[in-house]
Amino acid sequence: MQVPSAAIVAAHPDDEVIGAGGQLSRLRALTLLHVTDGAPRNMRDAAAGGFETRQAYARARRGELEQALALAGIAPQQTDRIGIADQEAAFHLAELALTLAERLDRICPDIVVTHPYEGGHPDHDSTAFAVHGACDLLKRRNGVSPAIVEMASYHMRDGTIAALEFLPNGDHDIVLLPLTDAQQCLKRRMIACFASQAAMLTRFPPDREPFRPAPTYDFRRPPHAGRLFYELFDWGMTGARWRALAGTALASLQSGRATCR
What domains can be seen in the chain, in order of their start residue? Predict the structure, then answer.
């Protein structure tokens, strides 16, 4: 059976290693697209890591990514980036969908692997929105579009983080891929490259990776009842605000008013 060609569209440098690190070296004709540069404009994360500028922090995160991907045999030329500031993807939803449609049309992957819509991080939800929007545009334009596959990220459960688990959503089967000892070793080495994210990455088990076909989302509705995980943080975003932005972006895409960034 031939391995499908794939594009992974991730919100931040490291998301693809968290969600699919054990599979990266197995995917044919792999392209990685990153929506953000991983560096918030507020400088809190940068300063905590000892970086004097947001740009220096973004460069460090890019360097960590390239080191990790090299361990899996993935060259920098297989990566692309849109470069929005971390935590700001929600303000560019329609443009993101158009930009991704152009890039996916050029790459022509069989599948697109991305985040679920689960309220874990606003950039994750924005990336999911943009991928679905891009594939809808390609379907209308070309009659075909890549299949969307989700890698698990994280969401809120009982007041804390539920890492590498999916929220229940319809009858879509989850494929849980256990990692061999060799895959786990490689994934741990890749994760260790992200020194700037070490505290967060300890929350993710390295022995399994769940995937599923993407369900159909209504991005104007909450992903689950109650508080979203990212609402625990002072990131300038609430679920209500994100959904309002998504509704505006949907209307813009459907009317044809949206323009590419």
Answer: 5-255 (3.40.50.10320)
